[in-house]
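Homework help board

Subject: predicted structure for assignment chain

Our instructor gave us this sequence and asked us to write out the predicted structure in token form, then describe one feature. I got the tokens but I'm not sure how to describe them. Can anyone check?
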Amino acid sequence: MNALEQFRHHKDDFFRTDPHSPLTPEQKRNFAGLNYFPENPELDLIVEVERFDKGDMVQIQTNTGDVQTYERYGRFSFTIDGEEAELTIYHNEFGLFLPFTDSLAGVETYGAGRYLEPEELPDDRFRVDFNLAYNPYCAYNPNWSCPLTPFENRLKVPIRAGEKVFEEY
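My token output:
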């Protein structure tokens, strides 16, 4: 089992058994695991991030109508299936945050978007591994409040990596 398969196995176990799982007790009884795209090494990226000026703050609405404050940290560009794309990384007291939607949103992926936490590397670049893209907890249970993907992070290209839309059994 490779590192990604181990990560996914542990996540499924957490969802199935942990009291902090976003699943309801009824969902846990029938839970057979999350749905994932096959690992895609081409979507494990090392990128250079163009940093924004400090203090570029934005309010991001949540699915429950609340707002959360984030700093616009930086933007990076990448190519997928021959098409250029750009995403903005945000930052708050919990760290770096990369919400995004792709052209598969609402069909193969969660309609409100998926999340990532980019990894800052020692050389000022970042690792953005879309294989680790995950659904927010509100995708499983409406009692959770989750930030909605800002317009600047809504891609017109497909990201066939990471977690797929949640299907209850």
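Reply (TA_rk): Your tokens look well-formed. For the description, you could write something like this. Residues 33 and 167 are 9 Å apart (CA to CA). That's the kind of observation they're looking for.
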